[in-house]
Every structure is written in structure tokens, then in C-alpha cells.
Amino acid sequence: PGDQEAGELGLAAVPGRQAAFRQGLEAAVHYARAVGCPRIHVMAGRVPLGTDRAAVAGEMETTFIENLRYTADLLSQEDMIGLLEPINNRITDPRYYLNTPHHAAAILEKVGRPNLKLQLDLFHCQIMDGNLSRNLEMYFPLIGHIQIAQVPGRHEPDSPGELNFPYIFDLLESLGYTGYVGCEYAPKGDTLEGLGWLQSYWESRGLQHGGTSKAAK
């Protein structure tokens, strides 16, 4: 994430911070290797303070693409995947550089490396664009990880909000998604209480704890 005390949130697209980005990437690879995690979120970063987004867009894109190609080469040696996550700039972070799946897809196309993928957080996607079914179908070949949270409160999937998660989970299954779904939300209570929705979801599908079929038992 860079120097968070200085207001940074990632460095991959920030001009002039290439050396710090590479140092941070190497540390991330070290940690990922140690815990056996094959995917690393490569954070784009924020538009620098005091600059206009449109005025620095070209330079930031050039920096981002160069850093991502470096990332892809490094991660290929580790058999790891780099992930790009759009973060909404309407609620969460007004200055974040990468904020729509369309932008992320365009960057991935320009970089052209198979071990870089889209980390699609449905919370951010809904806020920026909605149209989740179509976006999931359109960008499915690029998706390397899915994250969820209800909109607009960013709480559990069964909390009041805009998203119909049983429908979304069925859609992901029909598309053939076999990866993890990250719970990127703030529980209203503690962590264990915040996973109560999952037990209820499994039971609604005739499954037991851990997603195993009762029939199989």
C-alpha cells in the first residue's frame, strides 16, 4: 500500500514511486510465498494531491502499465497471479486511480499478460456501474478473484441493501466460477456473528457446514 501515513494507498500507477513499488512488491511476494497464497492485489494508488485527474491520467497509465509488466514477469517466476481491483471514487476513495471494471479491463488488455487478472469487488462495481449480471458475464474471463459486501452499508450480504446475493452466487456457479469469494465487509457485530448469513445460505441450499451435501452424508 505504500506509505499510508503519507496518504498513499498503493503505488503501481503513481509516477516517481517506481522504486518503492518494486520494493513493496518483493515484500508482498515474500509474504505470499510464506503463507502459500498464489494471488497478490497490486494496488494502483491515488491521484497525487494537488493534481487534476485528467491532467495526470496519461502519465499514471504509462507508469501503471510499466509496473504491471514488471509485476507479471516477477510473479511468473513464483507461479503467482497479480490482481487489479477497481475501488469506487464515489463513496470509498475519491482519489483512487482505478475505479471501474471497464478501466481495469482496458489496462489488462494493454499490459497483455495472462498472469494478471481482475479482482472484482461487487460493492465497488455496484456503486460505480451497477449492471452486475452483464458485467460478471462480460468480464468473467478476466476475473481472478471475487469480493462481496452489501450496498450501500458494506455489511453482511443478508443485511438490508441493493444486492441479491443468492442470485449472484447462482450466476457465479452457472458461469463456472470455482475460486474463493472474499468477504470484504464490515460485520455489524463480531466476525463469527458476521458469518451467520453463510450458515443460513448453506441450509437454504440443503448443505451442511462447509458446503457438504446432506444427501452425501
From TrEMBL:
Any one Gene Ontology BP term: glyoxylate metabolic process
Pfam families: AP_endonuc_2 (PF01261)
Active site, renumbered: 85 (proton donor/acceptor), 184 (proton donor/acceptor)
A GO term for molecular function: hydroxypyruvate isomerase activity
Residue ranges of domain Xylose isomerase-like TIM barrel in the record: 10-200
Top EC category: isomerase
Reactions performed catalytically: 3-hydroxypyruvate = 2-hydroxy-3-oxopropanoate
Domain of life: Eukaryota
Role, per record: Catalyzes the reversible isomerization between hydroxypyruvate and 2-hydroxy-3-oxopropanoate (also termed tartronate semialdehyde).
Protein name: Putative hydroxypyruvate isomerase
